[in-house]
Amino acid sequence: MKRVLREPFFKVGVVLFGAVSALGILALFWLPHDPYAFVFEPLARPSLTHLLGVNDAGMDIFSELLVAVQNTLMFGVWVAGISVGLGAVVGMASGYWGGWIDAVLMRLCDILIALPSVLVLLLVASIARPSGMELGALLGVLSFPIGAKVVRFQTAHLKETLYVEVALQMGASGWYVLRRHIFPALAPLIGFSFAGRFRFAVMAQATLAFLGLLSPSEKSFGMMIRQGMQYYYLDIWWHWIFPPVVLLGMALVGVTFVIFSLEGVLDGRVKGVLRG
Amino acid sequence: MVEFVDFSLFYEEEHHRLIALENLTCRLEKGKITAIIGESGAGKTSLAKALMAHLPSNATAQGSLKVDGVSWLDQESAQQRLFRQRHIAYMPQGGSENLNPLLSVGAQLREVMAPRFTCKGLLESVGLKEEVQERTPRELSGGEVSRVLLALALASDAPCVVLDEPTAGLDETSKRSLELLFNSLRAQGKTLVLITHDLELAHRVSDVTWVLYLGQLLEVLPSVELFERALHPYTIALSRVFPRMDRAKDIVKIKGEATFRLVHRHDASHAHTSTPEHVHVEAKGCVYAPRCTQPVRRCFEEKPLLKGTQNGAHACYFEGMRPLIALESVSFAYPRSDALVLQNFSLSLKRGEIVALVGDSGSGKSTVAKLMAGMLAPKEGRVVMEEPLRVGMVHQHPMQALNPRFSAYESIAEPLVLGRFPKERLDARVREVALACGLGEDGHVLDLLPHKLSLGTLQRVCMARALANYPDVIIADEPTSALDPSVQARVMKTLLDLQVETGVGVLLITHNLALARKIADIIALLKNGRLVYEGDMPTGVGGL
Known about the structure:
The complex is a heterodimer of chains A (276) and B (544). Chain A is built from 10 helices and no strands. In chain A, helix 3 packs parallel to helix 6, helix 4 (99-114) packs across helix 6 (132-159) and helix 5 runs antiparallel to helix 6. With 276 residues, chain A is mainly alpha-helical. The longest helix of chain B has 18 residues, at 485-502.
């Protein structure tokens, strides 16, 4: 762990991602204005009351940005949680018990992998008009199979280790083996998948919102950029478009750096997972 | 001719009575040598004293002891004394302190000699020269003293001679020549009672062996079967205690200690009138049960009676050590393969026994282990197991057998957690078994993960894990393969000590024949899936 702390990538990543998260936490307690109130002078320039000015509908951009940070982080955790959680459960069940359970679950995964997930999302978003969280759940379900396959492979491998054989011979149940022997060994892998899936979800949300597939009432980076782009001919880019782009970038780069540095340090442990 | 029927002997002390012999029902066979063995305090000397009718004043006897149909311990009379003198003679334990230091040997012989003997004849019959009769005891060597004592015992021409530790303290040569004398006495039709600690002597010289423990007769068996086919756990334990020339295995102690059996009186004032109604009957259950390694509840509640077997008798509910796992003419082949890994293979593992399975790589040793552990099922034949059976396995490669994310403590605790061991005693048990396996000196070893521990330590962690939840069987596959001889010795000692305490049956799989001979009771030699030898392997076999 100490080695991780000395990694420059890790430091930078934590600072970047920490700064974004801090804004999100700040929004929990304090907002300069109601971000949903369209009562201000439209397209007002930045001032002390409106740090980043006001948008075309008369909403305070800074308040909108803070809520967008919050929504983005929640969306990321939500999607990554569903995707990685499902992947771990399906993968462990499939890898541990094998047989028909494995056959059924893996064919299901194959079907999901085969589906063009972007098209499905576009289709569902345009026809059903789901909320952001509902779309996030769909995204999670569509993206779990790859993780499930990795977990399944690792589980099947760990199941064959001598120490699991010993535990079974001593009377351990399958549940016990999964809980005590297999899950802890998979934990680093699951942690990485979570971070990766989080990054993917944040990017996906920005994309979907930019394409206008998310409800305009739900603040997000993508939606703010999309709105600002309509007025690109005005001199608004630096206080309307630039801030969400920068924060999105900081979040993505921050998570990437953390994953990158942990990969380097925990390499042995991850390989240990592979070898059992 | 000498017959005990429900014979008991007590020594009355001020507040209690000490049980020296209890409910002895047995008969001495005429013209044979009967050895009486047992630890100190078993009642051997009391038995000898009863045969001599030479009991201390505080002794009380119950039941009957008859010699040629005559009640032996009736009150003293000159006639009675003469009768005894004619029937039973005694060679006392010890050396020249039994002789009068002032009288010559000849004078002492003449005191007791039957009319038909001469000093010369008697001395020659015990292998001494005639001139010895002129010497006083302090002019005799130890061996000569023994012979003189024997001559004295023979002098009365009694048909039965009680020999109390006749060879104690003698060198091997004197011992052997005394043994020859005993044989010739038997050939003359004498009945000999040989009281001894020396199991090998009993085995070599006597015809029948009686095994006494805390005043009770636990087993009667032909002496030739003493080391090989004894049935009572105590006899088996005694045979393992005794060092033998033809045995490579180390001596093993018996757990616990024999104690005197006392019965406290309700009322001390009844000291001389006390009858059995006035005493506690403490002997509920088998006297050996507290030290036995395979007792069941019944052993503590109900005393097993001496019952006859094929050619002896024993007082135990079981015929010898209880079998734990037996493979009966098992054949085995791995799936999708026709080649038989094992062919018509039989091997049984009994409680308190160490069976070493020796053989080359690929001879099927690990398959036997897996069959015994129930991890594989045989293709033909049967695997018979005592139920329920807890098996502890020690694997060859500790690095793989231990979860790299478990501290040593967690690994050792695992069988306890899985066995629903009471939580409040779990910690104490883990530390106890770790200590027993040599992991205790430095408490923090238990908190370390496997990659911080040496291979030797890991192997001991595996051993501790296998032993933690009081297994009935330990199957150890090359448990010391990675250890240097010093650590190997330590791990093996731990195993042996725990076996003494718990009577666990051990299947030891090893390439190391020297180690196997040192610790195993039975060595099974496996070659190409067949059992080619099974026994205690006194010397090397088959070029090994």
